[in-house]
Amino acid sequence: MNMRIDEQALIIPDWQPPAGVRALMTTRAGGVSQGPYASLNLGMATGDDPLAVQENLGRLRQTLSAYGQSVASAWMFQVHGTHTLDLDDETTRQQLKAGRVLQADASFCTTPGMACVVRAADCMPVLLAVPGGVAAAHAGWRGLAGGVIDVALQKLLQTTKQKPDQVVAWLGPCIGPDAFEVGDDVRDAFIQRHSDNATAFRPGVASGKWYANLPLLGRLALERAGVNQVYTDGRCTVTQENLFFSYRRDQSRLGGSGRMAACIWLDA
Q1: Does residue 198 sit within a domain?
Q2: According to the model, what pLDDT value does residue 252 have?
Q3: Which GO terms describe its molecular function (predicted)?
Q4: The CATH number of the domain where 105 resides is what?
Q5: Phi/psi of residue 78, each to 5°?
Q6: Which of 69, 71, 173, 214 is the most exposed place for a label (fewest CB within 10 A)?
Q7: pLDDT digit string (tens) for 244-257?
Q8: Residue 203 domain-assigned (yes or no)
Q9: First and final CA of the chain: distance in angstroms?
Q10: Strand partners, 187
Q11: Is 224 domain-assigned?
């Protein structure tokens, strides 16, 4: 089957990346999954029918290849950490080619035609681009507090020999600041890392509860590193049910939630 995903079901980042950089993010539309996973679920470990997920992944491969070349996708087993894959490394590439899903929460690449990919369903996908290189990071609160953006950015800059002022970043749809209520422990984890992170939290309804702004936390991390070209999508995965999967909204209510994918690559 493996039909292409309709372009109307995709998000193309509204940003100004360097020449030769391509990027897109899927929504929940355009696939074959049913129930809480309807319809373009790209997460294998979600409880969805594996055959449906494989069909959805095939549709994404067809879509990526329609951009003028066969684009290989580097899928990761994400654990809310900071480990970053070097997709230029030959051993890593052979493992991926053999079908291994490597544990990591970010990747970077300077090889044309190899897409850095992150899955998300409330966590924030972060895409980074410089002349000659790209990176993607899976930034939920644990990854952000641990420094996943910092690690991915550092690896990308070291490899490409570029400076932070050459970086263009895109912060994708995620759980919004009016939907992401957290406890003191989460707020403390960020403030202990950088005191100015306090600006990304506002008091919740109950004592000891706070509303966290993931896009602002991501922007602060990038700006501290010297990145000033930051574009934010701003849409909330929780409130826009027609467009996005949301783990927080659907897992307990419906018994499951699918995953979207954000992809970035260099033209071959």
Answers
A1: no
A2: 93
A3: copper ion binding; hydrolase activity; S-methyl-5-thioadenosine phosphorylase activity
A4: 3.60.140.10
A5: -90, 135
A6: 69
A7: 999 999 999 999 99
A8: no
A9: 26
A10: none
A11: no
d(CA 140, CA 158): 24
Least confident of 64-73, 128-137, 164-173, 176-185: 64-73
Identify the pLDDT of residue 3: 86
Q: Which residues pair with 231 in a beta bridge?
A: 170
Cα 131 to Cα 78: distance, rounded to the nearest angstrom: 27
Global confidence as pTM: 0.98
Identify any residues that bridge with 21 across adjacent strands, giving them in sequence order. Answer: 266
Which amino acid would we find at residue 10?
L
Which amino acid would we find at residue 80?
H
CA 31, distance to chain mean position in Å, is 19
Q: Where are the beta strands (DSSP E) in 41-175?
A: 72-74, 76-77, 84-86, 102-103, 106-109, 114-120, 124-130, 133-139, 168-171
Domain that holds residue 165: 7-175+231-266
Decide if pLDDT at 69 tops 80. Answer: no
Check if the beta carbon of residue 117 is closer than 8 Å to that of residue 263. yes
Distance from chain centroid for Cα 131: 20
**φ, ψ at 152 (rounded to 5°):** -60, -45
Residue 66 phi, psi dihedral angles, 5° rounding: -70, -10
Asked if pLDDT for residue 67 goes beyond 90, the answer is: no
Q: Which helix (H) or strand (E) holds 24?
A: strand 21-26
Say if 162 falls within a structural domain: yes
Tokens of 171: 């912060």
Q: And the tokens for 119?
A: 């899955």
d(CA 180, CA 175): 6
- 61: enclosing H helix or E strand: helix 50-65
